[in-house]
Each structure stands twice: as structure tokens, then as C-alpha cells.
Amino acid sequence: MTSSTAPPPSATANDANSPDPKIIDLLNKRAQADGPFASLEFFPPRTEEGVKNLHGRMDRMLAATSPLFTDVTWGAGGSTAELSLQLALYAHQNGHVANMHLTCTNMEKDGDPKAAVRDALQSALDGGIRNIVALRGDPPAGESTWKAAEGGFTCALDLVRYIRQQFGDDFGVSVAGYPEGHPNAITELKEGEEGSMTESEKARCSVLDGKTFVCRDEDYKKEMDYLKEKVDAGADFIITQMFFDAEVYATFVKDCRDWGIDCPVVPGLMCINAYNGFKKMTKFCKTRVPAELERKMDSIKDDAKAIKAFGVEFGAKTCRALMEAGAPGLHFYTLNLEKVVYGILDELGISSSLAEKADEKDEKSMQAVGSAWAREGDQVTSIFGGGTVKEIRRAGYAAVILDDWVMAGGQKPTAYLRQDSYEKSFSG
Q1: For residue 326, what is the DSSP state?
Q2: What is the maximum span of the chain, computed from C-alpha positions, in angstroms?
Q3: 40 and 149 in contact (C-beta within 8 Å)?
Q4: Would you list the DSSP string of 181-199?
Q5: Integer Cα distance of 42 and 47 in angstroms
Q6: Could you give the 3-state DSSP secondary structure of residue 97?
Q7: Pairwise CA distance, residues 239 & 248, whole Å
Q8: What is the pLDDT of residues 291-335, one digit of tens each?
Q9: CA distance 146 to 163
Q10: Is 176 within 8 Å of 238 (Cβ atoms)?
Q11: Are 394 and 143 in contact (CB under 8 A)?
Q12: Do 51 and 60 touch, CB atoms closer than 8 A?
């Protein structure tokens, strides 16, 4: 691939005084000869300093990569609703085509379980945003399972239908696709059941801590049926959950076509920036990790620079396989960082010498808002040092086993921390 495949700087140029174009229109206008596009995803940082730093990164990455569109995530339980909207508006006002995530979780207002969703959509529309990612969302902080509010939304399909009913074609709408199955549809196999897997199940299963997890064929069929419903209800295109096996994406796209889902399927790529973050996210999502990738990551886990360098190497290799499989573009889950994204684009020939210009001195400020990100088994930091979350309680308190403290007999103490007194660790 040569640098001629890079999108021109004007590919996503956007007038802050005009509404964004719909992403589906941009996708439909792109000829195959244009080559793949890059798009980016950011999450709301925890602190004002982090937000300020993210503004700078968004500006730099827009100029450097000309993303076709830029996603801003919506925190679990609606924990970042106001900040997510502000960041999406900032993106729009500064030249990005904003793609704002919106979830159904914890969005009640004045007793109306749908009012906050309606208000968020109207504010986005009034501000020039024309693209929404419709999601169910994760449980709020302190809850391990997702529950619908009485009279409210029960799933992303409800949200897609609501957007179309209330706003017609004002918004372009995208939805999530799960090539390995939604985490809630993935089953832990009992000892000895591995031999009962079909070939398709073997191709999407994962092995974590010696245990095998898989979305069984009957559950995968339900997942695909549901995805078809979301598209039929008005979704324009699909962005996938992260994966590390390009064959899984190719199979998923084929399955989409077999199900009559003909819209674009954009692969979502989690950038490998740190060993702990990689392990935590793959465990949380029950993501398939090829054995070769796991061995390599384990072999360099204590070398932060080597991890980022390998993240570039592996990311570029995966992207090439995706482009060969016909992926329309490359959607990068940046983790609010830039070096690995730049390195991958350099390796692909989409850019030149960007990695040398990467500035990640602010990496520590790129923490996610709130404890909604923390789950049992996650690594967190507090004034007591590092620790592992043992339990999240309803009030938001976390029971954290302190790794840096050892009591008599070798036991590690447990601290009970308020949700504003610890942060989830994505780096290290």
C-alpha cells in the first residue's frame, strides 16, 4: 500500500457553523479506489486537565490523520452524559465529523425514563451533530447486571426505533456488532465440553485463565437475528466490538451478508498500548486472543516501550488482513492516546513519520470518568497504592485487595473505597 491511499486533508473538513454530514453518506460516496479510511474514538477523561489535554490531542489527530469520523463514548450508567455531549460538540465545532455514543442506561429525568435521551438528542441536533451510535450501555456503577427502567428502553433496538420515530432521518445511526458474540451471550464451558464445539464455535472461542468461553451457535444465531432487527429498524452501518483475530471479522461480515444485512461493517480496533490494559479489556469482553499474540504479550509484559512497539506491529498486520478482507475502513479505539495509532498508519503507508511526532506526556491524565469503568477483577489505583477490585457495591463503594500491602501470614488487606477515591488502571 502506498501513501497515495491517504485521504486528502479536505476529506473530513467541516464547517462548525453547518451541520455534520451523515457518516453513511460519506461511506457511500467513497469509491473503492480511495482506499480505506481511518476513524477515531475517544472517551471522556476524569479530570479537567485530562479534558484540556484531550482537546489538544483531538486537534492534533484531526490534522495528522484526517479521520472520516470521530466517536465520543457515553459512560456506563450515563455517568458521562454531559461531558460526552460537550466533547462531541467540541469535535464538531473543531472540524471532526462527530459520532456521539448514546445509551439507554440511567437516563431518567423528572420521572420520565426517556426524557434525558430525548434532551441529549435534541441538544446534539441543535449543536450540529448528525450522527449517533445507539447502544444499550453497561450497568451503572455498583451494579453487575443491566436493568431497564420501568417504561423505559430495554435494549439498543428500542433506542434505534425511538430515534427514527422522534427525529426521522435527522440523524445517521450506527450500532454495535459483536463478531464473537455479545459478552452476555458468551458461555463458560465446563471441563470436558471443549470437544463438543463446532468448527464455527472453535473459530470464535476464547481461553482466559485456563477456561474456555464461547458464544454457542444457537446464541450466535440470536445475536445475528437481533443485529438484523437493529438494521431493519433504521441503523445505517455497524461498528464492531474489538477483536484480535482478523478471520473473526471476515466470518462476521460473511454472516451479516447471509443474514441479509447489507450495510457497511466497520471493524473496531483496540490499540495495544499497555499489558495490563490489554489483559483487563480482553478478560472483560471475553475476547479471543490468538495463542501467538498471548505468548508475545506475556514475553514483553514488563517492557512498556516494547509493548507499544509491538502494538504498532500487530496492529498494522491486522489492518492489512482486514483490508484484504474488504473492510471499508479502520476504526481505532485510541484509549485517548496517539502513538500506536500513528505508528500503525505509518506502517500502512497512510501517513509518514507521524509516530515520531507523537506526544503522550499527558498519558496519566487520560483516565476514564467514574468507577462505572471498574469491574470485579480490574486493577485500580488509590492513595493506598495499586489493588484489585474484589467487589463493587451498589452505593459505588469498591472492595479492593491492596497489592502493595502484606499482613502477617502473607495476607493482603481489603480497603473499602468510595467511587471518587480510586481510578481504573489502563496502563502499566
Answers
A1: T
A2: 67
A3: no
A4: --GGG-EEPPTTGGGG--H
A5: 15
A6: coil
A7: 14
A8: 999 999 999 999 999 999 999 999 999 999 999 999 999 999 999
A9: 21
A10: yes
A11: yes
A12: no
Rounded CA-CA distance 356/348 in Å is 15
Residue showing cell 489492518:
319
Task: Give, in degrees to the nearest 5, the angle at Cα 124 between 122 and 125.
Answer: 65
Burial class (CB in 10 A: 0-12, 13-18, 19+), 108: middle
Residue 6: what pLDDT? 40
Beta strands of 203-350 (E only): which ranges? 206-208, 211-214, 237-240, 265-266, 268-270, 329-333
Residues 6+ apart with CB under 8 A from 217: 198, 200, 201
Task: Measure the CA dihedral 127/130/177/308, to 10°.
Answer: -60
How many C-beta neighbours within 10 Å does residue 11 have?
A: 16
Q: Cell 457511500 identifies what position?
A: 28
pLDDT tens per residue across span 187-219: 999 999 999 999 999 999 999 989 999 999 999
CA dist 22 and 171 (Å) reads: 7
- DSSP state, residue 408: G
* pTM of the predicted model as reported, rounded to 2 decimal places: 0.83
Per DSSP, which regions of 55-186 are E strands?
A: 70-72, 98-103, 131-135, 172-177
- Indicate the SS3 state at residue 240: strand
Q: Give the three cell numbers for residue 235.
A: 441503523
Cβ atoms within 10 Å, residue 274: 22
Three-state DSSP state, 11: helix
Please say if 41 is a catalytic residue: yes
Amino acid in the structure at residue 122: Q
Marked catalytic residue, from 41, 201, 363, 423: 41
- C-alpha cell recorded at residue 56: 489538544
With beta carbons less than 8 A apart as the criterion, state whether 37 and 330 touch. yes
